Amino acid sequence: MVRLVMLCRIVVYGLFQNPNNAKTAFLRHSWNRIDFVAIVAYWIDFALLMTGQEIIDDIGRRLLVFKMLSALILLRLLNLTDGSKVILNSLKKAAPLLVNVLFFVLFFFVIFA
């Protein structure tokens, strides 16, 4: 469904430029860029799965990068309410302090392990 909506928006607004209004082009909006990256990653993952290239037999691990990128589309849910914006902004401001606490805890884990 999201792929169909993205395709319709690209047709209507244009991918990079819109002759009527340059600000309404599809890739001018940041959420549309995230959707575009997520959907392209999904199709790359799907192509790798269909060709059997997703699993690397030598190393025994899977290429999960494209699956993780296709999960970016869930970030659009954070844009639904104002409360989630407040929470994300507060976490963004508290991130340096949380990193300091994380290093402090890891220091004690390394010493007492």
UniProtKB/TrEMBL annotation:
<feature type="domain" description="Ion transport">
    <location>
        <begin position="5"/>
        <end position="113"/>
    </location>
</feature>
<dbReference type="InterPro" id="IPR005821">
    <property type="entry name" value="Ion_trans_dom"/>
</dbReference>
<protein>
    <recommendedName>
        <fullName>Ion transport domain-containing protein</fullName>
    </recommendedName>
</protein>
<keyword id="KW-0813">Transport</keyword>
<keyword id="KW-0107">Calcium channel</keyword>
<dbReference type="Pfam" id="PF00520">
    <property type="entry name" value="Ion_trans"/>
</dbReference>
<dbReference type="InterPro" id="IPR050599">
    <property type="entry name" value="VDCC_alpha-1_subunit"/>
</dbReference>
<keyword id="KW-0851">Voltage-gated channel</keyword>
<feature type="transmembrane region" description="Helical">
    <location>
        <begin position="63"/>
        <end position="81"/>
    </location>
</feature>
<keyword id="KW-0472">Membrane</keyword>
<feature type="transmembrane region" description="Helical">
    <location>
        <begin position="93"/>
        <end position="112"/>
    </location>
</feature>
<keyword id="KW-0325">Glycoprotein</keyword>
<keyword id="KW-0106">Calcium</keyword>
<keyword id="KW-0109">Calcium transport</keyword>
<keyword id="KW-0407">Ion channel</keyword>
<keyword id="KW-1133">Transmembrane helix</keyword>
<keyword id="KW-0406">Ion transport</keyword>
<keyword id="KW-0812">Transmembrane</keyword>
